[in-house]
Amino acid sequence: MPKDSPQEIARAIRPAMTKLYVTYFRIAEQSDLTGPQLSIMTRLREEGPMRISQIARDEGIRMPTASNALHQLERRELVTRVRDEKDRRGVRVDLTELGESELERVGAERVNYLADMLSALNEEDLAQCAEFADVINRLADSYGAPDIPQP
Question: For the HTH marR-type domain, which residue ranges apply (predicted)?
Fold first, then answer.
């Protein structure tokens, strides 16, 4: 197998990614919003009001899981239910102003946590990370696409 095959690259970076993931989320757990809640809120900010079924599908979670996460967010007044303009029987979920500000606050905290982790690198390694940032973002975008099979 070639040294730069997806399998070899995965084998080389998986342990470090796991370690970084665990470390990052231990620090980030100080936030009172979970990763899935932040993901849902970010999706609502980017795509606008959505039906719960669409959120569940796009997030790759079951309807009861989505409903529970949204219920928790609604209780905190971070999201609100609104009538579907196209189908008056339907309900969509939308981000509130408080939800938007909370998403910004937690996002800024997490950027700071990750920046602290990156600050341990020397200038050369940091420059390589900067170059690789676009690749990581493309990977995240394409991996979450509905037409790509996911484990």
Answer: 6-141
Candidates 88, 47, 50, 86; CA nearest to 67 is 50
Say whether 50 sits in a helix, a strand or coil: strand
Q: Is the pLDDT higher at 116 or at 149?
A: 116
Name every residue whose Cβ is closer than 8 Å to that of residue 59 and which is 6 or more positions away in sequence. 36, 39, 40, 43, 66
Residue 86, both tokens: 């196209």
DSSP-assigned letters across all residues of 74-138: HHTTSEEEEE-SS-TT-EEEEE-HHHHHHHHHHHHHHHHHHHHHHTTS-HHHHHHHHHHHHHHHH
Each residue of 23-49: b (16+ CB within 10 Å) or e? eeeebbeebebeeebbbbbebbeeeeb
The pLDDT tens digits of the residues spanning 100-121 come to 999 999 888 888 888 998 999 9
